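protien #1 (seq + structre)
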Amino acid sequence: MFHLPLTSLRAQFDDIDIYLFDQLLKGRIQKGIHLLDAGCGAGRNITYMMQAGVQVYGADISAEAIEKTRELASELAPTLPARNFVVADLDALPFAEDKFDVVLCSAVLHFARSEEHFKGIVQELWRVLKPGGMLFARFSTTIGLEGKLQQVEGRFYRMSHGPVWFLADEELIAELEKSLGAERLEPLKTVLVEQDRTMTTWVVKKAPSRY
C-alpha cells in the first residue's frame, strides 16, 4: 500500500491559513472558480489553489511580492497568465465588478492607514465579488482584548511588538455587514495570540442577484 509522505503537505499547501484550509474542507473553493487573493504576498495562501486548477488572481502593494507570486505561478500553474497578479493598493483594484467567486484577504486589513482606508478596502473587495460569492478575511481586532490594549488614537493601537495597527471591533464589523448586505457563513472566530493580539476570521456571502 502506497502512503504519501507527511513532508509532502508543505509542498502542497505551503503556509496556508488554517481557517482558509477549513473553507477548502467545506467545499467552498472549487476547481475552475475565479479567486482573488487580495494582499497575496508571495502566494502562501494560493499555492494549493494554483495546483488544484483554481483560476487564481493576486494583488499586493509590494512589487517584489507580486514578482515572487508570478514566479510561483509559472512553476505550479504555467497556464495562469502573469497579468493575473498585479501591484495595487487594495482600495483601488484593477478588476471588473462582480468578477470573482471568492475573495481572500488574510492578515492585511489591520495595516489600513485610516478607518476610511479600512472601509474602502472592504468595499472594494465587495465590489469585485460576484453575487453569491464568498469573502474570507482574517485580521487583528480588539475582540477579546477590550481595555487591555494601548490605544493611540481612534481605532489605532500600539501592539506589544512595536507597530501601530488599525484594529476593528465587533461593532465596526457588524456595521460593515449591514451596509454591504452581507450574510455570515460562519460565526466570527477570534484567536488570542500570546495575550497581546487577537486574530478574527470573518467569512461572509454576497447576496445573489435578483435578476
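ok now protien #2
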Amino acid sequence: MADLQALYNERVERMEKVYNRGIPDRVPVYSMVDNYAIHYAGYTLKEVIEDEEKQYRAYEKIMLDFFWDSTMYSGVTKAMKFFNKLGGGTFKVTDSLQVEGGAAEIMNADEYKELAKDPAKFMLNVLYPRKYGLFTEDISFEEKYKRFASAVDELFAFLDLGKRNTQRLKDEHGILVSRGATMFMPLDIILDFLRDFQGTMLDIRRRPQEVAEACDALADYLLQMIEDSYPNHIPGHMIFIPLHVPQFLRPKAFEQVYWPSFKKILDAFSKKGYKALCYFERNWEHLYDYLQELPKNTVVGLFEDDDIRKAKKELGHIMCIAGGMPVNKLMYGTKEECVDYTKSLLDDMAPGGGYIFCSNVILHNAKDAKPENLRAVNEYVRDNGKY
C-alpha cells in the first residue's frame, strides 16, 4: 500500500508540474480513453451500465494493459438511469458504444431575457418540463414526485459510483484519475441543450446582445455550482471543459457572445487555483489573439485539429499544451509509423516542458485506435520522454 501511495504521489507531482508549464522528470502520458475501454474489455455500453463491477473492470483493464500517468475516466460519464427515469430527452444508449443526444431545441428564441433573469428558476420551472417526459405525464402529483425522487436517487448512485471507481483505481493500483469535475461554457449549454445548432447560430446573428447577457448570467450560475461541489483545487485534478461553439464563429461574433463569459469563468478559476482542461475542438487558430489574454497557468489546452507545434509556439507561455497524437494514425497507421510520429512530437514539443502527450480526440469506439499502436506510442514516451 505504501508503494502504491508513493506511485500515486509521483504521478500527482508530475501532472501538477506540467499543468503549471513546468518541466517534470518526463513528458506525461494522459489517457483520453472513454467508451473505447468498454469495447477493449469485451463489454457493451448497456452491459456496463447495468453491472457496476464490469464497468470498473473495463476502466481498470485499459489502465493496466497500457502505460499511462493519469486518466480522465474511471467509468461511464452519463447518468443514463437518471435521464431515463426523467422520461428521456437528453441521451439514449445506441446499439454501438456511443451515447446519442436527444432533442435540444426546447427554448424559444424570445426567451433569452427570462433565462438571463434567473437561470436556475427558468430551467427548473420552464425548460425541464419541456425536455423531460416525466413532468408532462398525466399522473398524480404524488406519483410524479415519487418517480422524480427515484430519478434523483439514480443520479446520486451514479455520482457515488464514479467516486468509488476513482478511489479503487487509486487504492488498488496507484492510478490518478485527474478529472475533478466537468462543466460546459454558457453558450455551449445553449447550443447543446436549449436551442440546438441551427437555433443558436441564428440567435447569434439576430439577437447577439440577448445571447451575451444570458451567457453572463449562466456564468455566475455555473461558477456557483462548481464552487459548491468542488470548493478547492485538488492536486493532480482538472475541471474538464469541452468547447463546442467557437470553432464555428468568426472573431467578431466570438468576441461579442462567447468571449466575455468564457474569460469571466477562467479568471474566476485562476483566483480559486483551479486547473481547467479545455478541449479546443476542431480548429481555433483564428482565435489565438483572444486566448493570449487568458490567465497564466490555469488552462491545459487540448487541441483537436490545430497544428500542435504552432499552438505551443503561440500559446505555450500561457497554458500547458496537450494532444498531438492523431487517432487516424493510431487506427490506420503501422506501429512503426506511429512511433516515428511520436518521436517527432517529443522532439518538437518536449523542450521547455508544459506538454502532455495524448491523442488529439477522446477515444470512444473500437475504430478509434489499434491497441498495438496505442501501446507502442505510450511506451515510447515512457521510455524516451525524459528530460
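Residues 2-78+104-114+173-384 form a domain with the TIM Barrel fold (CATH 3.20.20.210).
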